[in-house]
Amino acid sequence: MSEGFYAALPSFDRFDLVVEPERYSDVPADWLVLITDVRGSTQAIEAGRYKEVNALGVACIIGVVNALRGLELPYVFGGDGATMLIPASSRARVEPALRGLGRLSESRFGLSLRVGLVPVGELQADGFPVRVARYRASAQVCLAMLSGSGLTEAERRIKDTAQDERYAVGAGAEALDLEGFECRWLPLQARRGRILSLLVQALGEGEDQQRARYRQVLEEVRAAVGELKAASPVEATSLRLAGRPSAFEVEARLRSAGGAWAVLREKLRLVWAVGLARLLLWSGKKAGSFDGARYRQEVSENSDFRKFDDTLRMVLDVEPERIAELERRLQAMADRGEIVFGMHQSEAALMTCMVGSYSGDHVHFIDGADGGYAMAARPMKLMKRGMGVGASS
C-alpha cells in the first residue's frame, strides 16, 4: 500500500529549493489528483464575497483532511479552491465529504463547487507527470509543493464538460466534518504599503528550461522585494483577533447545522472563545494546549504565503515602488517569452486557518483580502492568450 507515501518523503527548509526537480518524487500511480474550485468565483469576488470564496477553498481541504484523519496528505490552497493528492484506496471515505461540501456551498452561500478526481496513473500514462515535495515551513508544519504538467492537465480534464462524469463525484451519502476550520483574525493590514498577490508560470520547451526560468524569477523577486520571509504579510506582533459577532459570520455559517438561530448561537460562542484567546495572548498565559506567549509566532511561522504547484504563488507585503520594480523585471522576462504572470494589489491580506491543535499543528492560508489570487489569475490568463499559450502550458 502507498498510503504512507507522502509522510515518508524527506523535507527541506529552503524555499528556493522548491524549483529544484531533485526535491520532488513521482506520486504513486494509485493516487488521485483532487481539484476543487468555486464556480463563478471571479463574479462572487467582484460582488465583495471574497471571504466566502476563500472560506470554501479552505473548507475543501479541511473536509478531506478530516475524512482521512491519521493520513498526512499533500494540499495546496489556491484562493478559490484547492489541489490535493489522495490515495485511490481512500476515495470511498472522501466522496461523502465532497458531496457534503457541495451541498453546504449551495445551501449556505448560494455558490456552486466544482469537484473532480483524476487518476495519477492515467495522467502518467498519457505523458503528464505529477510530483510532490515536502517543504518544512516551520518546526511544526510541512507544506506540500507540487510540480508536473499533470496538475494543469487534471484541471483541464475536470473542466472539460465532455468528460465531466468520468471524473465527477458519484451520488450517495454525505458526511462532512469541518472541525478545525477557523476564520478569527482581522485582515492583515499592509505595513509597507500594499499587499501583492503574485502568480508566475514559467514557459519553455522542457522542464530543465522551465526550472531555470523559475530560478531566475526567484532572483528577480529577491532583487526587487528583498528577503521573502521579511515580506510575509503575517507579522506576529501585528496579528489581531476579531471581536464583533459579525466578524464570525462566515465561520458560523459553515460550522452550524441549523438555521438563523443556530448561526447566531455559534457566533456568540465564537465571541466568547475568541475573548478568552485574546486574554491569553495579552497575558502570555497557557490554557490547555493554547500558549498565549507562543501562539502568534507559530501562526506567522505556519503560514503559506509562498508556495509552488507548477505555478509560483506569493502574497507579499511590499512598498509600491518595489512592486513597480518587480513588475518591470517580470515584464522583461515575459517580453522574451520566458514566463507569464499576474499581479493584484490589496490593502490587506486575509487569513483562514486549519487548526488541528493549538500546540503547533495549525496551518494558516493566506490570500489578498479582496480575492488576490483569483484576481491575479485574470491578467495572467490574458497574457497567455496574447502570447498564444495553450491552456495546458
Radius of gyration: 20 Å
Give a count of the beta strands, DSSP E runs of length 2 or more: 18
- Please summarize the sheet with the most strands: 4 strands, mixed
The residue-averaged pLDDT reads 92
Task: Walk me through the structure.
The chain is an alpha+beta fold. The strands form five sheets. Strands 1, 2, 7 and 8 form a four-stranded mixed β-sheet that branches. The longest helix is centred in the last third of the chain and has 24 residues. It is globular.
Short description:
It contains twelve helices and 18 strands. With 393 residues, the protein is α+β, with helices and mostly antiparallel strands.
Keywords for this entry:
four-stranded antiparallel β-sheet, 39% helix, globular, 23% strand, alpha+beta, 18 strands, four-stranded mixed β-sheet, 393 residues
Write the layout of secondary structure elements.
Elements: E1 11-12, E2 25-26, E3 31-38, H1 41-46, H2 50-67, E4 75-77, E5 81-87, H3 91-109, E6 113-119, H4 120-125, E7 131-136, E8 142-147, H5 150-159, H6 164-167, E9 181-182, E10 188-189, E11 194-202, H7 207-225, H8 249-255, H9 260-283, E12 286-287, E13 290-291, H10 295-301, E14 306-308, E15 312-318, H11 320-335, E16 339-346, E17 348-355, E18 362-368, H12 372-387
Helix pairs in contact: 2-3, 7-11, 8-9
